[in-house]
Amino acid sequence: MILLPILKYPNERLNIVADRVINFNEQLTKLVEDMAHTMYHSNGIGLAATQVDIHKRIVVIDVSKERNNLMVLINPEIVTFSDTKELSEEGCLSVFDTYEKVLRSYSITCTAYDQYGVAKTFDAHGLLSRCIQHEIDHLNGRLFIDYLSSLKRERISNRIKKLNKLKNKTS
Ligand code: NI
After folding, report:
1. Chain segment 45-60, per-residue pLDDT in tens
2. Which residues pair with 19 in a beta bridge?
């Protein structure tokens, strides 16, 4: 398995809208394996293909404590959002050291395929619901910090740019 490099904000390629997967083939299962490997290695609970600069509608998620419950979502779509919302903190492997509260539907109903092309429909609540919404946003070129006020986003962007400059000086 290969560790895939993760795009970091403010890389504009994070804003590309991903295309639907059409071919369920060996190349796809291999990519899913590499994405899962990359997510576990980075201690993330979710990773969208957009984040590894592959603009296809592919998501891997594992919200279990034991890190042994991989969920693969190909062409995922949310068909129902609950009116009940929850404000909770999020972070992202593509946004360095940033944790902010985002309001999201507590429950969703989702349709997706697995990596072998088998369709599934399921409900998700709480953290899993939040994570799926966050990852589908990635496929649509959207980051969780896009929900924040422009002032707050600017502050985050300035801090990350400063940190990047420091990093470039020391390396
Ligand atoms: Ni993310």
Report:
1. 999 999 999 999 999 9
2. 56
135 among known catalytic residues: yes
Backbone φ, ψ for residue 56 (5° rounding): -125, 155
Q: 0.90 exceeded by the pTM?
A: yes
How far, in Å, from the CA of 145 to the mean position of ligand 1? 10
103 pairs with which residues across the strands? Answer: 87
Residue 7: inside a domain: no
- How many whole angstroms from 121 Cα to the centroid of ligand 1? 23
Name the nearest CA neighbour of 55 among 22, 18, 4.
18
**Which residues are in the CB-under-5-Å shell of ion ligand 1?**
92
List pLDDT tens digits, range 117-171.
999 999 999 999 999 999 999 999 999 999 999 999 999 999 999 998 888 887 6
Q: How many domains does the chain have?
A: 1
Q: Which CATH number goes with the domain that contains 136? A: 3.90.45.10
